[in-house]
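User: Predict the structure for this protein chain, please.
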Amino acid sequence: MRVVHYSIQGNHLHLIVEIDDASMLPRAIQGLSVRLAKTLNRLAARTGKVFLDRYHSHVLKTRREVGNAVRYVLENFRHHLRQDVAPNGTDPCSSAAWSGTRLTDDVPIVSPRTWLLRNALDPVESNVRCA
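Assistant: Here is the predicted structure, written as structure tokens:
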């Protein structure tokens, strides 16, 4: 599983991922959840469950659907904050900071491999671009 875009909200995550074999998605999500939970528990000096054992997945099939999903994930923080306190620019708790830049090994996302994700956003449609 390759995380291409993400957004961290107050009580949930939004991820746009690529995976070679759809049957492996549950295992991949479980592995990511375990890794994140161990890190968060260590940082908070606590133990126990961090995530519920559920997630929602949706296969994106069209260029428009992928573009809308990427925009939703990268701009979702605006929906959760009051208009008068919503920060300008990009969400600091998302992968938006790396959009349009060359990705290196030290960033938490990867460049998309699929045509749909590489070509989802037309520069005329949005100022958010896939990396």
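The longest strand covers residues 2-8.
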